[in-house]
Automatic annotation (TrEMBL):
Gene from which this protein is expressed: Trpv5
Single GO biological process annotation from the record: calcium ion import across plasma membrane
PANTHER family assigned: TRANSIENT RECEPTOR POTENTIAL CATION CHANNEL SUBFAMILY V MEMBER 6 (PTHR10582:SF25), TRANSIENT RECEPTOR POTENTIAL ION CHANNEL PROTEIN (PTHR10582)
UniProt GO MF annotations: calcium channel activity; metal ion binding
Pfam annotation, one family: Ion_trans
Protein name: TRPV5 protein
Membrane topology qualifier: Multi-pass membrane protein
Keywords noted in UniProt: ANK repeat, Membrane, Metal-binding, Phosphoprotein, Repeat, Transmembrane, Transmembrane helix
GO CC terms, sorted: plasma membrane
Domain Ion transport: 135-394
Chief location category: membrane
Length: 509
């Protein structure tokens, strides 16, 4: 019952009352230490009161609980060394990490905890010591891997076509080799080494990604942009396309260019995932994800309706015409593709002035230009501009969340020998088996005094301004100029003391 009450207090809107009641209930706890403590009993979701405060974004309760956990090591003048208990915060030995819970929640208030002590210092320590070097090495390794795969695709086994063309529009001159013909020369053996590296890399990607999907859940794993959800979809699809290409090569099935081209696009697009390691580029990946899976997905439904309607109309109009004179609409798939290009203004309106065009083509194309180019494209630009404005206001916060998610991911994937535990064991200071993070803080004794001086000078300036305003309003119109000059003189003389105070304050700072 006591543990349930603690969880309820974390969710209370009255933060001060909740903190006092929290202390009152814990004062009656018989097992203040050890696994029987009320603070260490999880709820049905596996969250202790401390983790629940982080997930809900209750910064007041989080700071209150951290103040209870800290130990003052020593103080010397303005310098103070504090040990913060990071047992539940550190993701090194936690199945359900506190840091991972914060970045995976949809509440923006929870991400503000990443800027509080000691979470900010712990993340900075992990990222600078291990996260950034490993992440940069992983990015370099992935780029080299993609270069290898690209070279294998560029020099894939092809041979000249021997069959006769069945249509004047058939432009194929090379076809795919059979499996027995693909690995004969020395260059083929070099390509085989690159293809084996590509296949092994695809298998490793699936082996790494699938356990996380089973542990977290597909909806949460792919749905969180901060966790890199869309990029996980891209890299898993890329690995599947590689395996499909391998099967088609081994069975000598024609058409391997389809999965191979998809794999090239997806693989190189996944390079943008590594931009999250840099503060200048990290927020832009968030913007791209939100624009693609937010604005663009909604816009594509409207665009599909417009393209289907006008492409059908264009095809019907030119169905009775000679396709050699205007071939952009000679069949229905080509009509769809041409209308899509017209929608994005990639090409101009197709026309052949040597022949008579149908009258309805001009009418339909006029309506299409007004709806697609002037209305819908400007609507898309406005939607993306609004998304950019919203993300730009929280880009620092989003980048910190990206760093935390990347750090937790690397910490789970790498062996323990490559990523030792951060912090200091409490046994060194007689504090048990808990782990602590030592933080040095400098307290300026003149800071509060300076703030009092600042408030006093501001209040004096406000009083002088209010008195001058009242005096100006009480005067008549005939004496307006005289009183205005007198007011400026009185304000200049009355501000002398406050001006002197501001100068002293500037010199002291």
């Amino acid at each position: 019952i006591g543990n349930t009450v603690l969880h309820i207090l974390v969710l209370q809107p009255n933060k001060t009352f909740a903190c006092h009641m929290y202390s009152l209930i814990l004062s009656y706890d018989r097992n203040k230490e050890g696994p029987g403590s009320l603070e260490l009993i999880p709820n049905n979701e596996g969250l202790t009161p401390f983790k629940l405060a982080g997930v809900e974004g209750n910064t007041v309760m989080f700071q209150y609980l951290m103040q209870k956990r800290k130990q003052n090591l020593w103080s010397f003048g303005p310098l103070t060394t504090v040990l913060y208990d990071i047992t539940e915060i550190d993701s090194w030995a936690e199945d359900q990490s506190f840091l991972e819970l914060i970045v995976s929640t949809k509440k923006r208030e929870a991400r503000q905890i990443l800027d509080l002590t000691p979470v900010k210092e712990l993340v900075s320590l992990k990222w600078n010591m291990y996260g950034r070097p490993y992440f940069c090495f992983l990015a370099l390794f992935y780029i080299l891997y993609m270069v290898c795969f690209t070279m294998c695709c560029v020099y894939r086994p092809l041979k000249p076509r021997t069959g006769n063309r069945t249509s004047s529009r058939d432009n194929t001159v090379y076809v795919q080799k059979m499996l027995q013909e693909s690995y004969v020369a020395y260059e083929d053996e070099l390509r085989l080494v690159g293809e084996l590296i590509t296949v092994i890399g695809a298998v490793v990607i699936l082996v790494i990604e699938i356990p996380d999907i089973l542990r977290v859940g597909a909806a949460k794993y792919f749905g969180q942009t901060i966790l890199g959800g869309p990029f996980h979809i891209i890299v898993i699809t890329y690995a599947c396309m590689i395996l499909v290409t391998m099967v088609m090569r081994l069975t000598s099935t024609a058409g391997e260019v389809v999965p191979m081209s998809f794999a090239l696009v997806l693989g190189w697009c996944n390079v943008m995932y590594f931009a999250r390691g840099f503060q200048m580029l990290g927020p832009f990946t968030i913007m791209i994800q939100k624009m693609i899976f937010g604005d663009l997905m909604r816009f594509c439904w409207l665009m599909a309706v417009v393209i289907l309607g006008f492409a059908s109309a264009f095809y019907i109009i030119f169905q009775t015409e000679n396709p050699e004179n205007l071939g952009q609409f000679y069949n229905y798939p080509m009509s769809l593709f041409t209308t899509f290009e017209l929608f994005l203004t990639i090409i101009d309106g197709p026309a052949n002035y040597d022949v008579d065009l149908p009258f309805m083509y001009s009418v339909v194309y006029f309506a299409f230009a007004i709806i697609a180019t002037l209305l819908m494209l400007n609507l898309l630009i406005a939607m993306m501009g609004d998304t950019h404005w919203r993300v730009a206001h929280e880009q620092d916060e989003l980048w910190r969340a990206q760093v935390v998610a990347t750090t937790v991911m690397l910490e789970r994937k790498l062996p323990r020998c490559l990523w030792p535990r951060s912090g200091i064991c409490g046994r060194e200071f007689g504090l048990g088996d808990r782990w602590y993070l030592r933080i040095e803080d400098r307290v300026d004794p003149n800071k509060h005094k300076m703030m009092r001086y600042t408030e006093a000078f501001k209040a004096q300036d406000r009083d002088n301004y209010d008195k001058g305003s009242e005096k100006l309003e009480s005067n008549g119109d005939t004496l307006c100029k005289k009183e205005l000059s007198a007011l400026s003189l009185s304000r200049s003389t009355s501000r002398t003391s406050s001006h002197r105070g501001w100068e002293i304050l500037r010199r002291n700072t």
